Amino acid sequence: GQQVMQIPQYQHVQEGEDFTTYCNSSTTLSNIQWYKQRPGGHPVFLIQLVKSGEVKKQKRLTFQFGEAKKNSSLHITATQTTDVGTYFCAGPGGYNKLIFGAGTRLAVHP
Amino acid sequence: DSGVTQTPKHLITATGQRVTLRCSPRSGDLSVYWYQQSLDQGLQFLIQYYNGEERAKGNILERFSAQQFPDLHSELNLSSLELGDSALYFCASSPRDRADSGNTIYFGEGSWLTVV
């Protein structure tokens, strides 16, 4: 079935360093969504990418959708302690399912 | 605040028991999703309802069942509970049926279930 693979599983960075998480799908995706879950919290929608090669920015966060619409990345520039959490990508897994990647847990050391 | 309300927030129960988790979707949303998140695990899709009808099923155990009522709230019933069922159960809602462009899903704060 549809799978969304996400790497790395964990990432530890020093505050101020950059961070990137990657998401790969076995099939072409009509869209991909990114969510952030703070420790002890619930997933919160960040952004959705729809077009091939699309790049969207939210302050220090840059989201990219691959040309083949099978991969995506989230890059955070100059991480801050407020960036701590788990970042999930999610893509349609059939008509109705939204399938989440395993997530990348980001730890930021001050 | 996502607008999705889940109750109870925390629940401790014994093995073999049955519990019901409740979810009220965002105003206007017709789709309700249930996800399970075990400790240090990702989000496992359980089931989705749209306007009262079951639309998609994931890895939901036979001991678990769900339904969506005419007022669009949903309940997830977990029976014959086992220790391994301890997890955070999220409800989410979205305006439309399909997991396609623009149909963002919004999560509730979750119900922590501990089976002892």
Please provide a written account of the structure.
- The complex is a heterodimer of chains A (110) and B (116).
- Chain A has 110 residues and is mostly beta strands.
- Chain A is 0% helix and 55% strand.
- Chain A has no helices and eleven strands.
- Chain A has strands at residues 4-7, 10-14, 19-25, 32-37, 44-49, 55-58, 61-65, 71-76, 85-92, 98-100, 104-109.
- In chain A, strand 9 (85-92) and strand 10 (98-100) form a beta hairpin.
- Chain A starts with a strand and ends with a strand.
- The mean pLDDT of chain A is 93.
- Chain B is globular and about 40 Å long.
- In chain B, a hairpin with a 2-residue loop joins strand 5 (44-50) and strand 6.
- Chain B has strands at residues 5-7, 10-13, 19-24, 31-37, 44-50, 53-57, 64-68, 74-78, 87-94, 106-107, 111-115.
- Chain B has no helices and eleven strands.
- Chain B is mostly beta strands.
- Chain A binds chain B through residues 30-31, 33, 35, 41-45, 48, 50, 88, 92-103, and chain B through 2, 31, 33, 35, 41-43, 45, 48, 50, 55-56, 58, 90, 92, 97-102, 104-110.
SSE layout and pairing:
The complex is a heterodimer of chains A (110) and B (116).
Chain A: E1 4-7, E2 10-14, E3 19-25, E4 32-37, E5 44-49, E6 55-58, E7 61-65, E8 71-76, E9 85-92, E10 98-100, E11 104-109
Parallel strand pairs in A: 2-11
Antiparallel strand pairs in A: 1-3, 3-8, 4-5, 4-9, 6-7, 7-8, 9-10, 9-11
Chain B: E1 5-7, E2 10-13, E3 19-24, E4 31-37, E5 44-50, E6 53-57, E7 64-68, E8 74-78, E9 87-94, E10 106-107, E11 111-115
Parallel strand pairs in B: 2-11
Antiparallel strand pairs in B: 1-3, 3-8, 4-5, 4-9, 5-6, 7-8, 9-10, 9-11
